[in-house]
Design the sequence.
């Protein structure tokens, strides 16, 4: 069986098998399931880092420098760059931006770009599968990098062990705009482009925001970096490693990973149940019939919903 | 019954009842259901306009000027301003921006701002309910205005009859970034701030993009406006009215509204089914048990999903 051959090769660190398997999970939902079922028992070793923040924050450069720093420390790195807005798959970000040449040719680094197109089972599911494949491939660290801070990107980045929120000076009102529900997920705040005017002010704003929030056992550190000049990258990596130490010693790692697994299972249940429910709803054109009734104002949407649900047994 | 009293008043054009009912649909999912069941038969009269596009495009000003122009033509207007990122409800956008004073005091205009906080059943559902209430209140036109072009905002704006995509000169690469899956939904393109350098180029870029897309029966018009100076607003409104004429004469209106209704019903079914499935999954801590097994790598997430689904009857 083809999948098993690829998985065997993946376990032996075969780079082409890794690339091939990621392409499969992007494009074939059924095969993705078979692959994950096969490799899942080998996962859970990598430290997964999510890098997010508003567009224009230099996340891509920061990711590259972090990867470089990890390589300097003898670690292997997988990078999954997420671009839900991109019309292209498997090349958009790599094609659009200049990744450091020495990274692209380094066998200890595996970079993959993922867009929505081609991700049949959804970008989030494909990304989670890609992370698992990179984990089994042997990456010590896996960096998930997003383009923006949309809901789908936040959902993806939340699956990481450590979330780095990248801010830049001069965002002004935009900081306000992304505050709600987004800033809270940062385990570490990186103020990039800290050689620009206003870096201290941005750091102070982030600090003030953290002061306003609920008291936590661990206060997210704020690190000032200039990724383009490779300043502060090493300190940022130290904080990322510190965070993993904290996660382990506090028992948070187990809890966080279990929460993520639960969310993942619920999402899988939702997809599967809705697939079945929609199939059932098509029986005798039930869904079309209630839609027409609602369109004619003979029925309201809630009653339509109830009438469809009644089609199933009381066992749901 | 309180709801019925409010609904009676709403049907008589009572402004306070309208405001009160919108607050209820934001905060109480069960009551929202009762309200919509009660008023649904009176809906479907208003022309719903969705205004979207990247941040900084001046959508708020354009919305105000369009409302003003509609008032000049003797029409009543409801405005629902959506801000999913805002930590506040019912005041964030109104508080942050300056709405034209004469609009705020005009009894023929009803403005409502909605954020995620407080929308228990989700922002999308609350917005759709608010639009229905404004429809019954008697608004001839309802404008849904979003802050950005995130997925949740796109989903909301898609429920409109006419979608106006607002672009501005100088967005550069950002146009590229929002192209996929977003530009296609525009029925009309408004190039705002057309007194700025590059307006013609932006119009040309939009035109080029439309040329590349699939041929449609109707080609979305491109209108250059300067909302702040009230230039082109009247032409834009003419195009919006033309679009409704097209929708009616081509039969597209019926089709589009039915598609939206179907999506709405499916979403309601999903919410309801998942509520029941999750309740069922908690029986004997089944979900917690499989989560623990997956966390220990004794089971993979897909098998966990299957084992939970097996708990239900074959009738799903």
Sequence:
């Amino acid at each position: 069986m083809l999948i098993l051959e690829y998985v065997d090769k993946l376990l032996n660190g075969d780079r082409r098998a890794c690339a091939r398997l990621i392409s499969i999970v992007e494009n074939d939902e059924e095969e993705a399931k078979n692959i994950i079922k096969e490799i899942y028992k080998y996962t859970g070793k990598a430290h997964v880092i999510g890098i997010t923040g508003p567009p224009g924050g230099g996340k891509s450069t920061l990711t590259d420098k972090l990867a470089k720093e990890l390589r300097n420390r003898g670690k292997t790195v997988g990078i999954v760059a997420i671009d839900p807005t991109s019309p292209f798959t498997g090349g958009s970000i790599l094609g659009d931006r200049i990744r450091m040449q020495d990274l692209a040719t380094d066998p200890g680094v595996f970079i993959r770009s993922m867009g929505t197109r081609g991700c049949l089972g959804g970008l989030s599911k494909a990304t989670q599968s890609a992370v698992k494949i990179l984990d089994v491939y042997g990456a010590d660290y896996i960096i998930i990098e997003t383009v923006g801070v949309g809901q789908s990107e936040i959902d993806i980045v939340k699956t990481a062990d450590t979330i780095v929120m990248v801010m830049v000076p001069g965002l002004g009102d935009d900081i306000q705009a992304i505050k709600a529900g987004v800033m809270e997920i940062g385990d570490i705040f990186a103020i990039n482009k800290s050689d620009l005017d206003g870096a201290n002010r941005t750091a102070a704003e982030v600090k003030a925001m953290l002061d306003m929030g609920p008291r936590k056992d661990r206060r997210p550190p704020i690190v000032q970096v200039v990724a383009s000049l490779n300043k502060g990258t090493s300190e940022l990596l130290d904080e990322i490693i510190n965070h993993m130490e904290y996660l382990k010693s506090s028992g948070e790692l187990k809890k966080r990973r279990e929460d993520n697994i639960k969310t993942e299972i619920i999402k899988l249940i939702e997809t599967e149940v809705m697939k079945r429910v929609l199939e059932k709803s098509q029986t005798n054109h039930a869904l079309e019939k209630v839609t027409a009734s609602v369109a004619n104002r003979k029925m309201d949407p809630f009653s339509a919903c109830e009438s469809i649900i009644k089609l199933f047994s009381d066992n749901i």
Q: What stands out?
A: DSSP finds 14 helices and seven strands in chain B. Chain B has two domains: 42-250, 253-316. The radius of gyration of chain B is 22 Å. The mean pLDDT of chain B is 86.
